[in-house]
Amino acid sequence: MKTLIATALIMASSASYAHDNSFSTESCNVDLNGGININAKEITFSKDKLALYSISNNDTLLIKGEEIELTYQQQSLLRDYSTSIRAVVPEVKSIALDAIDLAIDGVNLAFNELLGDGNNVSSELTTQLTSIRGEVDAQFSQHKDFYIDEDGFSGKDFFGDDFEQRVESAVESTIKNSLGSLMIAVGQEILFSGGDMNAFEAKMENFGQQIEHEMENRSEGIEKRGEALCHSIVAIDEMEEELKASIDELSDYDFITASKKTNHNKA
Question: For the whole prediction, is pTM greater than 0.85?
Fold first, then answer.
């Protein structure tokens, strides 16, 4: 059962948007060298909490509050850069929520098979994961500022180790509290197998493979969207380089570094 749960949780706790198979490994590497705050009117770029420059209404560059005069071409570059950054936020939110939904589905598939529909384990886990989903949804609310820096979203590692630990803790505490029900269910499964442990293990392994196959199929769409998101961020990094080359006042700033690498492996 531990393997079944892990299969679902990997979908929810992944922050790197990396896709692996027998033939190739595609990895997206994104580094921020400062903080980026996005609200309805402005995108502000800062370092050590000190605002360095901002983009107002997508096409106005402000440095220390003073507007920088731009050519039409520079203004067009700035607009593309600003709108591309804004477009990333809802897609990150959508992928994150869909990944958690996938984890919830995986948990229910696993425990419903062993304990039956409407069991307390599935219900409690769904409640806890749904609560975490609500926090993620609120984190990306369009009515609040969106801030990310070198340490992650809102100044903390929102989708990193702490986030993964919270999901794992939810599973561990639920299983611990429901250990009696799980032991009874396992005992019943063994009895149904005529006391044959090999038959029971084979049944559980077969079920685990079925769950893993189904979860992998469901996750393919999320992985492809993650790869597309990586391409978008790499394009934003390229736009930033164009802005630095075109606008002297931005030449020393390098906030976004992104790359996508494919390593080919033997099957």
Answer: no
